[in-house]
Each structure stands twice: as C-alpha cells, then as structure tokens.
Design brief:
43% strand, 79 residues, mainly beta
Length: 79
C-alpha cells in the first residue's frame, strides 16, 4: 500500500509522546491520518529547509490517542 501525506500544523499525542498530525490518502483514495512522532533525514542530505518547515509552531491540538481508546465497531458494521 502507498499513502501520500501532507504535514499539518496540528499536534496530538500518541502513547504520551507529542506527534505531528499528517493528513493524506491511500492510492485508492481512502483518507488517512498519520501521527508522526519521529522523522529523520538521510545523513548525506541537506536538512536545512526540512528542519525549517517542521519547526513552524503548531496551532491546534486535534486529539489524543491512548492504548485502549479504540473500540471494535458494533456487529454488522464494516468500519
């Protein structure tokens, strides 16, 4: 599976760790959210612009995830 994501200014937490929220979609068009807690640039790459873009301050806390927050869908529902 492939997904295309774009960084947002939103920050949430995942297992107690701050995570920037990225929004995107799969190749099939299914919308996704990605909670990115760590991101690295290859050693040989110039990371100046990358670091500048990611250092923009977040403005919104969207949601918080803790293990056990997700509940199974009711019987008969696909999602």
């Amino acid at each position: 599976m492939k997904i295309t994501i774009e960084s947002t200014s939103e920050i949430g937490t995942c297992n107690g760790v701050p995570a920037r929220i990225w929004k995107g979609a799969t190749d099939a068009g299914v919308p996704v959210l990605a909670f990115i807690t760590r991101l690295a640039v290859a050693e040989a790459a110039d990371a100046t612009e990358f670091e500048r873009d990611l250092s923009e301050p977040p403005t919104v806390v969207l949601l918080t995830y803790r293990p056990g927050d997700l509940r199974p869908a009711p019987a008969g529902r696909n999602r």
